[in-house]
Amino acid sequence: MPDSVLDLERVCKDGLGFSGMPAYDRTKKTVHPAILMNNPGDDWSQFEPPAGDFPKGWFLGYSDKPAAAELVVCVERTKATATGKVCDMETEDGKPLKISTYNTSYQLKVVEARTGKALHEYNGEAKSDECPVYIYTSEGEDKNKYYNEVWPKDYRKRVQPFIAP
Fold first, then answer.
1. In the Cβ-directed half-sphere of 106, how many Cα atoms lie within 13 Å?
2. I want to staple 17 with a disulfide (CB 3.0 to 4.6 A). Which of 21, 69, 115, 127 is the partner?
3. What radius of gyration do the chain's Cα atoms show?
4. What is the pLDDT of residues 76-91, one digit of tens each?
5. Measured between alpha carbons, how far is 121 from 139 in angstroms, rounded to an integer?
6. How far is Cα of residue 163 from the mean position of the Cα atoms in its chain?
7. Is the pTM of this model over 0.85?
C-alpha cells in the first residue's frame, strides 16, 4: 500500500503498482475511483480537480485515502515550445513583468493502481495564443514563463470510459 499519495508517482513514472490496492474490474457497473497525478515538468503531485470539472466520486480528493483508488490518471507535460508571444503583466506589488508563453505537449495515461498496467495512453497538446489573466509560480520556477495548461475538459471524455459505468 502507498504510505502517501506521493508514492503513486511510481505508478505513473515506472508502471509499478501496489498489490494491496483495490482490483480494477471494468465489468462492474460502478464508479472506479481514481487519483489524478500531475507532472508539469518538475515533480509528480496529486491534483484535485475543482468541483464541477468531473462528476462527484470520479477522483479522490486531498483528504481522501489514496488506498481507495482503483486507478491512477497521470498527466505529464512532455514538451514546451515557445509561442513567440510576450505578455505585459504585473507582479503582486505592481511592478511590470514580461511573460513569455509556451505551448505544451502532454501525455495522459490511465493506469491500474494495483498492477501498474496502462489501460489507455494519449498524447495531446495544450495551445493558446492568449495571455493568462494571472499565473502562480512555485519556488525555483522561472516567473517569466507561462506554460499553457492541460485542463480537465481536455481529457474528461478520455478517462470517462474507465472510471464511470
1. 26
2. 115
3. 17
4. 999 999 999 999 998 8
5. 31
6. 15
7. yes
